[in-house]
Write a structure and sequence with these properties.
Homodimer. The protein contains 14 helices and 13 strands. It is an alpha/beta fold. The chain has a 7-stranded mixed beta sheet with strand order 2-8-7-6-5-3-4, sandwiched between helices. A 4-stranded antiparallel beta sheet has the order 9-10-13-12. A two-stranded parallel ribbon has the order 1-11. The longest helix is centred in the C-terminal third of the chain and has 23 residues.
């Protein structure tokens, strides 16, 4: 064993050494449809306007009052209820980490349905908190109400995450079941609406009913994945406590100004979302026509599909320069499943052809 390896074992936590880093697949030269990104760039005139605006930003100064302007703009955009406040994060990933940090106490547990967003479990592990994953119902990927309520009663979790729609399954859970879970939860419930631009429903009109519910969103799926900006809404007193663990200046002046610019031109991003919703339906119909392929219903900008041999199909698509997400190695509920991002019409045509040729 080298001296460096000995030092690593001395100073790096054993559980961290056993973890796997979040892996981003190389995508150079590929049709990239593995990460639920918006495929559309800004029109040239908006690109020029944004460039001029960012060029005028005082990057020699730490972020200041413009973040207050951004919080106000996001609150208006989301329709945040009175008596609520909003905290910003460097993507929703940072907000999830902040929640784990704020709620870590002896015996505190994080609970979420699985399969779900991997950062719920990873953030708990990094804070030394037990994570309880409650399997979704097979085939339908609906919440298992009885199992969820039993797990809540047994573990009394500090945090319960419910993705709405869920990643990677793309479905919206039953609202009546969600409400019963919210009422049973002894700690905080986080409704994660990362894919809200593509969904037919939002929890925002129910947020004011529950003082222990937080609503989390991101601008990544809105069309700003490269900007890295998430936000979370909740009762003002609760948000003020969570905000205490936020790193100072966690949102840069450039990210802030780019987000403000996007909100001022939200009609363009709404137009892009309409195209992607239409493309999602076209993609599902095309997948239904392929032998041996089963697409699942989706309210997000992705479609989960079951194929006869996911590894073979994934490798075949990759050889044809189309990159999607192979769901193997995760939940057994996702055996032989691929997750396809909804791309532009041209990208979707290429993806459908690659999938057909790779079966």
């Amino acid at each position: 064993m080298s001296q460096l390896q000995q030092r690593i074992e001395q100073v790096i936590r054993a559980d961290v050494r056993q973890m796997h880093a979040y892996v981003v697949q190389p995508s150079a030269g590929m049709v990239k449809l593995d990460a639920m990104e918006n495929p559309f760039r800004l029109p040239p005139e908006l690109q020029r306007a944004l460039g001029e605006r960012l060029g005028a930003v005082a990057i020699n100064r730490y972020p200041g009052e413009r973040l207050d302007v951004l919080r106000e703009a996001l609150a208006r955009h989301a329709g945040m209820p009175d008596g609520h406040a909003l905290v910003l994060g460097n993507g929703s990933d940072e907000l999830i980490s902040m929640l784990a940090m704020a709620c870590r106490q002896p015996g505190a547990t994080v609970l979420a349905p699985v399969p779900g967003f991997v950062m719920y479990e990873m953030s708990a592990q990094l804070q030394g908190m037990p994570f309880v994953g409650v399997p979704l119902q097979p085939d339908t990927f609906e919440l298992d109400e009885r199992a969820m309520l039993a797990a809540i009663e047994q573990h009394r979790p500090a945090l319960v995450y419910i993705a709405y729609p869920n990643n990677p399954t793309g479905n919206l859970f039953d609202d009546a079941v969600i409400e019963r879970i919210v009422q049973a939860a002894p700690g905080l419930v986080v409704i994660d609406e990362a894919y809200q631009p593509f969904s037919s429903r939002s929890y925002i009109d129910r947020l004011a009913r529950h003082e222990h519910v937080l609503l989390m969103r991101t601008l990544s799926k809105f069309g700003l994945a490269g900007v890295r900006l998430g936000y979370m809404m909740g009762r003002r007193e609760l948000i003020e406590e969570i905000d205490k663990v936020r790193p100072p200046y966690n949102v840069s002046v450039l990210n802030c100004e780019a987000a403000l610019f996007a909100l001022e031109h939200d009609d363009e991003f709404a137009r892009q979302a309409r195209i992607l919703r239409d493309e999602r339906q076209r993609l599902i119909e095309a997948l239904q026509a392929l032998p041996g392929v089963r697409p699942y219903p989706s309210e997000a900008n992705m479609v989960l599909v079951k194929v006869p041999d996911a590894r073979r199909t994934y490798e075949g698509m990759k050889a044809r320069k189309v990159l999607v997400k192979h769901m193997g190695g995760g939940s057994p509920l996702l055996a032989n499943c691929l997750r396809l991002t909804v791309g532009s019409p041209e990208e979707n045509d290429v993806m459908i052809a690659a999938l057909r040729d790779s079966l």
